[in-house]
Task: structure prediction
Amino acid sequence: MSIPLLGQGNALPEGFPYQGFWILEPRIFLFISDDQPTRDIHAPRFAEIINPNGDDWAFGFDAHLLAEALSVSQQDLFAANGIGRLTLESIASDTPDGEDATIKRYTFGLRGRHATVVIQNLDSYGHT
Result:
């Protein structure tokens, strides 16, 4: 069973450092990368964190790279997120309760496909 995604598909607020949409408002977002679309999916910046030490912290996944990992177009990924078809199947970490984790695994699902994104040190690095 997937994780409930409140606010999924809502646009990121004006003045937010990235363009995109919420996956789970106000924590997890899908952003449009300024980088070239040919970037390697194993490169850093698969994920970005905003205000990591504040109460209003949030982090996002590069839409192009997540779409690539799910073998869909970026347009299809945004459309699926907008209508609730992009799912967050699970979150696993290297600590029992997820607090102070140095590694987290986010498994997304779309149309029977799954992609797991591993974030290490939660400092903007990730791979599938």
Notes: The chain has two helices and eight strands.
